[in-house]
Amino acid sequence: MSSMALEVKNLESWYGESHILHGVNFSVRDGEVVTLLGRNGAGRSTILKTILGLTSKRTGSISIYGQETITMPTYQIARLGVGYCPEERGIFASLSTEENLLLLPEIAPGGMDLDEIYKMFPNLYERRNSPGTRLSGGEQQMLAMARILRTGAKLLLLDEITEGLAPVIVEKLGEVVTNLRDKGFTIVLVEQNFRFAAPLADRHYVVEHGKVVEVVQQSELAEKASLLNEYLGV
Q1: 80: Cβ–Cβ under 8 A, 6 or more apart, which residues?
Q2: What pLDDT score was predicted for residue 234?
């Protein structure tokens, strides 16, 4: 298996006639956490969807654990060990928390069992019999993340997981991301909350107008703070 979990080269992507990505390049080594930072409309979420084959057209190269996937259908990409947590969360509102967790198929060996999930997300254990409609926004986000951990995925694509959540929940999600990294997961975070993302990632890719315009290593955060503020408007 390649030590490079994800390698994206010259990636172009379209929604219908709209050309959204314009030559995106970035890479993630096995076990790393990286962020895709940028303003709304920069193309960050589209990058994740394009990796999964969820746009109408894509060209370039997307290598996942050494395997080229640019022509693969979405279900085959998932079976390479890719888990996606969409911004809209996508939980089944009429099912209980536990039913949501039991519904997921195994795409690779090594998925977390319910005991492991409930240890990582104690709130979900407390609400295990509650329907999705009764969960708070933070609990729904935890459930959306927990579901992909059940599948055996090792490369996690997480889209705006802190958006609209209370600071105490954001802090908990930061602990979860750190825990997952310690367990050997590889994580790509799309984030606008830079304060959340900054201490978690090995590397930050700044996306603007559908391309990566800046790469900031963890060790460069202090010296490039003003540049990041300019790009992100923070």
Answers
A1: 64, 65, 67, 69, 108, 155
A2: 57
Closest Cα to residue 49, out of 23, 11, 104?
11
* Residue that the structure tokens 């997952």 belong to: 180
DSSP string of 21-46, one letter each residue: EEEEEEEEETT-EEEEE--TTSSHHH
Query: Residue 88's closest CA among 20, 35, 14, 144?
Result: 144
Check if the beta carbon of residue 52 is closer than 8 Å to that of residue 82.
yes
**Predicted pLDDT of residue 35:** 95
What's at 153, amino acid-wise? A
Query: What is the C-alpha separation between 125 and 106, in angstroms, rounded?
Result: 21
Mean pLDDT (whole number) for 87-103: 90
Tell me the per-residue pLDDT of 10-22, one tens digit each, with 9 for 90 and over: 999 999 999 999 9
What are the chain's domains?
4-88+155-232 (3.40.50.300)
- List, for residues 131-156, the tens digit of each pLDDT value: 988 999 999 999 999 999 999 999 99
